[in-house]
């Protein structure tokens, strides 16, 4: 109520129904100029809403930043955004209480990790591209010994970086993400960045515009209702196998579930400041296809198979799976040798799975007859019905499926009551990973991998995988 009374009193004293404000014409997503010359962007709408609740209309002029400052300083417009609160600017303008935008200052580079700079102090003596007239973070701006190479726009700096004309550029996170999303030519496989501070930007009010002081007071009151703009976490979709219980599967309600799903959900929750991750469960063969074409950034849980050349990065491993032969003939177990003991047998394997390089070679040679099944349940049923001689898959997942089948009312329950499932031969142990597509066009891939691995190692060190697996063992 007091705010309403305060604003009403001000309306009586401030005559103008419309104010003119200058803004940058090339700093998306905050402000830029569309094809019709109109100012657009998140900051434009933010400022428009603040003045709207004051009953004041706004007219925005999208101009180069240097002109934006001049127009506001001379009183031709009420103000200019996005203006940093530097000692020089404080003398020229009046500043609101709250910043309009807060953003991270990033250093982008194409130098390999471990060889190039990875923190602010490493930039001493280095050439760094910057945009003319921009203030960055206080730490970066105060750092001596950096050779700053100015260009007229962020896009120009970025093109110089990917064209190998400068080894580093300074750029704000919001601007970098916008440019990478709209300029595919900027994508480079080895593109990476690190953070060198934060910066705040304001709608700087002119000291000469009519009624600017009163308008600033009104603005301060109304702006309390609107939080400072920040870069939102990037939206990312990660794909998983929908039919690999207990590691990853889909419940009857269509929800992702499983040991790996629970573990990765904890990892992704710790990444939420940077990335908003959605899990989508798909058939395994479909997931591999998405990874190969680059339609998917990442897929879990593939083994490391040399033939999958479209995978260029594997995460830190988060589990070790035991690839085991389960065979109906108990005599095979006594002196089982691979591949000799299994020649001529029918071996069931989940469709799309490449469990072991040696196994794949034997299938290619025709040493075994391969029978594809949809999942562990179908593989066990084939084995119990003696339609195949052996079934091969990860031991934990097979035994979990077997226990669930025995407890269910499945039609083959009678056969399972006398069927003895036992390991015949351990073929190999395979780490499980989150695999990343070489062909993905996701521009923040390297940072996603870095953050993911950091949070994954932290959660594994806390023993979370052991706890999650124990819950499934109990079931």
Automatic annotation (TrEMBL):
Keyword annotations from UniProtKB, A to Z: Signal
Keyword RNA-binding assigned: no
Asked if the keyword Amino-acid biosynthesis belongs to this entry, the reply reads: no
Q: Which Gene3D superfamilies match?
A: Periplasmic binding protein-like II
Domain called Solute-binding protein family 3/N-terminal: residue spans: 20-110, 237-473
Q: Where is the signal peptide?
A: 1-17
| A Pfam short name | SBP_bac_3
Show the PANTHER family listed in the entry: ABC TRANSPORTER SUBSTRATE-BINDING PROTEIN, MEMBRANE-BOUND LYTIC MUREIN TRANSGLYCOSYLASE F
What is the recorded name of this protein? Transporter substrate-binding domain-containing protein
Q: What is the lineage of its organism?
A: Bacteria, Pseudomonadati, Bdellovibrionota, Bdellovibrionia, Bdellovibrionales
């Amino acid at each position: 109520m007091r705010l309403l009374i305060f604003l009403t009193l001000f309306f009586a004293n401030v005559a103008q129904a419309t104010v003119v404000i200058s803004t940058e014409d090339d700093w998306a997503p905050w402000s830029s100029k569309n094809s019709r010359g109109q100012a657009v962007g998140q900051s434009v709408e933010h400022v428009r809403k603040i003045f709207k609740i004051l009953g004041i209309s706004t007219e925005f002029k999208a101009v180069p930043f240097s002109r934006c400052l001049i127009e506001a300083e001379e009183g031709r417009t009420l103000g200019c955004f996005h203006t940093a609160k530097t000692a020089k600017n404080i003398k020229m303008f009046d500043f609101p209480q709250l910043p309009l935008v807060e953003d991270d200052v990033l250093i982008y580079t194409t130098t390999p990790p471990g060889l190039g700079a990875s923190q602010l102090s490493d930039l001493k003596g280095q050439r760094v591209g910057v945009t003319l007239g921009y203030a960055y973070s206080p730490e970066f701006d105060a750092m001596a010994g950096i050779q700053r190479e100015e260009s007229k726009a962020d896009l120009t700096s970025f093109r110089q970086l990917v064209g190998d004309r400068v080894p580093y550029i300074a750029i704000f996170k919001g601007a970098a993400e916008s440019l990478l999303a709209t300029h595919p030519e900027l994508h480079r496989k080895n593109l990476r960045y690190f953070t060198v501070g934060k910066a705040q930007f304001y709608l700087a009010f002119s000291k000469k515009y009519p009624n600017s002081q009163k308008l600033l007071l009104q603005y301060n009151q109304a702006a309390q209702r609107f939080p400072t703009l920040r870069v939102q976490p990037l939206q990312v979709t990660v794909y998983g196998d929908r039919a690999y219980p207990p590691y990853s599967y889909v419940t009857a309600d269509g929800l992702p579930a499983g040991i790996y799903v629970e573990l990765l959900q904890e990892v992704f929750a710790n990444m939420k400041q940077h990335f908003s991750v959605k899990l989508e469960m798909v058939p395994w063969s479909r997931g591999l296809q998405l990874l190969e074409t680059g339609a998917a950034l990442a897929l879990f849980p593939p083994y490391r198979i040399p033939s999958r050349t479209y995978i260029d990065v594997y995460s830190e491993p988060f589990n070790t799976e035991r690839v085991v032969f389960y065979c109906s003939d108990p005599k095979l177990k006594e002196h089982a040798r691979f591949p000799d003991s299994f020649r001529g047998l029918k071996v069931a394997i989940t469709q799309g799975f490449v469990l072991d390089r040696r196994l794949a070679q034997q299938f290619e040679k025709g040493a075994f007859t391969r029978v594809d099944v949809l999942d562990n349940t179908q593989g066990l049923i084939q084995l119990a019905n003696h339609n195949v001689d052996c079934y091969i898959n990860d031991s934990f997942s097979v035994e979990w499926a077997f226990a669930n089948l025995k407890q269910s009312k499945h039609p083959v329950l009678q056969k399972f009551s006398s069927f003895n499932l036992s390991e015949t031969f351990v073929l190999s142990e395979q780490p499980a990973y989150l695999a990343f597509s070489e062909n993905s066009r996701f521009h923040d891939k390297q940072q996603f991998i870095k953050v993911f691995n950091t949070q994954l190692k932290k959660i594994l060190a806390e023993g979370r995988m052991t706890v999650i697996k124990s819950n499934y063992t109990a079931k």
